[in-house]
Amino acid sequence: SCRASMRAEGAREGTRSRLMPRRSRSTHSTVSGASRPLVLIADADPDLREQVRTLLRSKCDVVTAEHGEAARAMCTAQLPDLVIADEALPGVDGRSLLRLLRADVRCRALPMILLSVRGDEDDLVEGLAAGADAYLGKPFGGRELVACVESQLRLAALRRQGELRLREFVDAAPAMLWVADRDNHATLLSR
Questions:
Q1: Disulfide check for 133: which of 93, 111, 125, 183 has CB 3.0–4.6 Å away?
Q2: Which range among 41-50, 116-125, 177-186 has the greatest average pLDDT?
């Protein structure tokens, strides 16, 4: 089943520019609802990539990668709205890809669904602890995948709307004060 973990976005960074990084978005933005979201599917199995593309094509634009390094390059070249990655990708595996994306200021807020044939509770907990937004065990049902993708896209759009509201607030304020702890969690002091 799709099990999601919401992350606190934005407040991880210690400076204003790092607090609210201005993400260059492609035309695939779900904030305005005017265009279709872009979903990246990273899986070594071409049949699974095509199956997922078929399931999502009526709702999303889909690009695919067959290994982790290609997925990372695609994410940095054209920021997708969602990444779906198999944990067992060749080269850079799914969890390593997740760590690399979370370490990149341009990609850290990307929602990511991990897929795995090892769908036991320990794997689920480890995947979510690593920063995945959701975890699906293989084989998964088509409706389950679509529901999980739609949920993650909605949550991502809400996070971006919150970022925009905070950015507007910060831009309008004559001065902003906040403190950041050692883990870069920020506490806003200005009221």
A1: 111
A2: 41-50
Output the pTM of the full model.
0.74
- Cα–Cα distance between 27 and 5 in angstroms, integer? 27
- Could you tell me the pLDDT band of residue 191, with boundaries at 50, 70 and 90? low
* Residue pair 134/3 in contact by the 8 Å Cβ criterion: yes
**Burial group, residue 171, by CB count within 10 angstroms (0-12, 13-18, 19+):** exposed
For residue 55, give the nearest of 75, 74, 41, 35 by alpha carbon. 41
Give CA separation, 132 vs 19, 101, 181, in Å. Answer: 20, 11, 23
pLDDT, averaged across the chain: 80
The CA distance from 80 to 9, in Å, is 17
Q: Prior bond to 90 cis, omega within 30? A: no
> d(Cα 151, Cα 165) in Å, to the nearest integer?
21
